[in-house]
Design a protein that fits this description.
By secondary structure, this protein is an alpha+beta fold. Strand 1, helix 1 and strand 2 form a beta-alpha-beta unit. The protein is globular. The N and C termini lie far apart (37 Å). Helices cover 39% and strands 30% of the residues. It has one domain.
Length: 71
């Protein structure tokens, strides 16, 4: 399956390959991965495989914290 890894900063091939086994285990299939830089993430990554999104970004963590504090 095709996967897009959105990263806050450019990611080299070695780093991408180091996270491949974790992502393939999580999604249960081999992934054809590409990287796109999205500086709005602040830090970490967001991965999109088909309709599924795994968001580990700092931006998402801050949004969750805001929701928890407001609600």
């Amino acid at each position: 399956m095709k996967a897009t890894v959105y990263s806050a900063y450019p990611m080299d091939a070695d780093t991408l390959e180091s996270i491949r086994p974790v992502l393939e285990k999580k999604f249960g299939c081999e992934l054809d991965m590409k990287v796109e830089v999205d500086r709005t993430l602040i830090g970490s990554i967001r991965v999109k495989v088909g309709d599924t999104v795994l968001d580990c970004s700092v931006k998402e963590k801050l949004a969750q914290l805001k929701t928890a504090l407001m609600g």
